[in-house]
Amino acid sequence: MKNQQAPAGEVSAASGQLAANGSQGASSQSAWGGLLSGANAMRALVLAGGVVLHAVNVYIATTILPTVVQDIGGLDLYAWNTTLFVVASILGSALSPKLLAMTGPKGSYGLAAVIFAVGAVICAAAPSMSILLFGRFVQGVGGGFLFALAYAMIRVVFAEQLWPRAMALVSGMWGVATLAGPAIGGVFAEWGMWRAAFGAVALIAVLFAVVASGVLPKREPQSGTGVKASIPLIQLILLTLAVLAISAGSTSAELAHNVLGLALAFVLGATLIAVEKRSPSSLLPSGTFRLRSEIAGWYALMSLLVLTVTSGEVFAPLFLQVLHQQSPLVAGYLAALMGAGWTVGAVISSGLSGRAIERAILSGPLCGLLGMVGLAFLVPETSTGLFLNLVPICLALALIGLGVGLAWPHLLIRVLKAASAQEQELAGASITTIQLFATASGAALAGMVANAGGLIDPGGVEGTRQAAYYLFSVFAVAPLFGIVVAGNCRAKKQSD
Prior knowledge:
Blueprint: H1 2-5, H2 13-23, H3 32-35, H4 38-72, H5 80-125, H6 129-152, H7 154-157, H8 163-190, H9 194-215, H10 233-250, H11 255-278, H12 294-324, H13 328-335, H14 337-349, H15 355-378, H16 387-418, H17 424-455, H18 460-475, H19 477-495
């Protein structure tokens, strides 16, 4: 496709110069050595570190929240810690192109880390759950900035040959966080020092801001295109309300409330699309809501893969504890096999080229389908948690993550190349916006299916068995559709 060849080379002169200066010979070397050497090494580690900071905080907070509730109360607001954090992260990711255009790589990354640190300090000092929620919201905004900027700046600070490796490194950090976050949070929780956990996160964020300001390049604000564009305020409000509607509906055990939440989210989403098509300020790149456009297909496939992973991650620890007699810590780490598989897949896939990339993209939904079908049959069968009983479940979990990891770096590259040169920064931020929205929606929908499947009524072991079967069976549809979407994207690319 002709318009796919241009974006990378038509980026602004300032961006192109940055990539040339930071490549350190990467034009002739696209291997890991080109990314992890010279100036590129520190820049890569900073971008990856921002994602780690955001992701580790997610798992630390989840682990210590029961201890927090015991100390300051607020059990009725428990779920909103995650909801508000995700909503704020979506807002931060959507606003990141504006921040990057105004302050450049150095300024934007440093400011994002400082905002994140301020939120952590508020959480550490919170006397009540309401103040803690405010701190989590501030953290979410800063975390959304960090998350989105990591992807957006890859095309700014690295030569195009290094994009797949850089994408793999950044996206693979979630797997690292999945392993490290619960352990760190568990230590602070066992010591009863939950405030120290947030304090430690704040300190690390400040140090990270200092390092980022010394490593990342500075760019004149005039070189960006986002300064001229206004903030898509109406779209952001509609997107936020849609996430909140789904989340609110999922907290109820009543089917009517679930349906009402979904219906309201659908109306808000339809309104967002209508506003986006007519607004001069865009939340997502042009063509996102045209079904036959290339970028719409890549977004759809990304969302379906995220739905697959999220539906498994949310309830897998619970199912392993109730149905297979695992401790919370062990169950958490077994569920983390998805994240570990994602990281391994991303590293393996980053060096592929040609037709191997097409096969890697197709393997994402294919592995997801096989894994979800396997879990639908394996997880509901109760066991005493013996090694032989757990191995097939672990393989299915790892297979889902591996498939997503194989496809993910190349999906991100396809999004960047499908966007116009004028929308490169917007496309980079959109990756995070889409991923976070799909994550929030997937978690909420998984809750609805599990509740309707019997998790609450009849509850207990039998209710959990039913919920596990229905959850994995229903969400197996996501990767199944993903196979169809991947095939359509491939056919369209070949025809063009």
